[in-house]
Amino acid sequence: MDAVILVALVLLTGLAVQSADLSCKTFEEIYPSGKELCEKMWGDGFVYETNLSLGFTTWFFEAENPNNKVAERLGWPSPVDDCHLQSLHKDTVQKIKEAYGKEWHWDRCGPLSSACERFFVQEACLYECEPNAGFYRKFPDHVYNDSDPNHNKWQMEGMPIRADYCDAWFRACRYDRFCAADSGSYSSCAREYAKVDNTGDNGGNAGLIAGVVVACVIVAVLIGTLGFIIFRERKGEPLFNKPVEGPSIEHSVLLPGFSKTAQIT
């Protein structure tokens, strides 16, 4: 019986760990501030830059790309290409979200508010069309090795992002929900979701399985307890003995208004 209970508890613990990996929390529960949002969500891709003149932005409304001036201050050469937002914005938000596969959907924990989702779209625009982002590829052309499975052409590293932009992103999303795996790492979440998607389990059965395991544990404990009580009864050693009746004890009490004591047994 103890073995059955132990196995059930192990299964329940395993389910709890798996569920925790894919848990959803609000942004403010995952990231204490905009700094952690920018630096944790994207791994080592972005750096929270408090000197705004040295930080890039993922979005702008000016006719001229302000990131070119930032790159110039940082000593980078003029980018070869300009930012072609028009080509990207011919697509809808839905198409941009689906461009990298289901595991990268930013709304796996439920629909985001429009204010929050706007920042994810802007980040995708920076990644796809910002020429200065090329200066921060983790594996630039002179380093990239096609035979090395750890190398890729898309990963970024150390790009300084304006602190006020990161803070605005945090404020826009603070009450929305996001994957909390690995403290909110977007890439870790994508890997976990890919595993779930590949197994065809969307996580919806986890609660049912956990409930069945808990029910089995409770039933096992009840059966074990009942069996133990019966065993003791058959041995003549019941757990719940009748109280032993002892001799009555007399107490002398002086009652108010009486000159003699009353005997109470």
Would you kindly provide a written description of the structure presented here, covering whatever features stand out?
By secondary structure, the chain is mainly α. It has 2 domains: 1-22 and 203-240; 24-201, no CATH class. Helix content is 45%, strand content 8%. It has helices spanning 2-21, 27-30, 34-41, 67-73, 85-88, 93-97, 114-129, 163-173, 186-199, 206-234; strands at residues 24-26, 46-49, 159-162, 177-179, 251-254, 261-264. The strands form 3 sheets. It has a two-stranded antiparallel ribbon. The protein has a two-stranded parallel ribbon with strand order 2-3. α1 packs antiparallel against α10 (206-234), α3 (34-41) crosses α8 and α7 runs antiparallel to α8. It is elongated, with a radius of gyration of 33 Å. Mean pLDDT is 78; it is low at 6-21. Keywords: Disulfide bond, Membrane, Signal, Transmembrane, Transmembrane helix. The chain crosses the membrane at residues 208-231. Residues 90-184 form the Folate receptor-like domain. Residues 1-20 form the signal peptide. This is Folate receptor-like domain-containing protein.
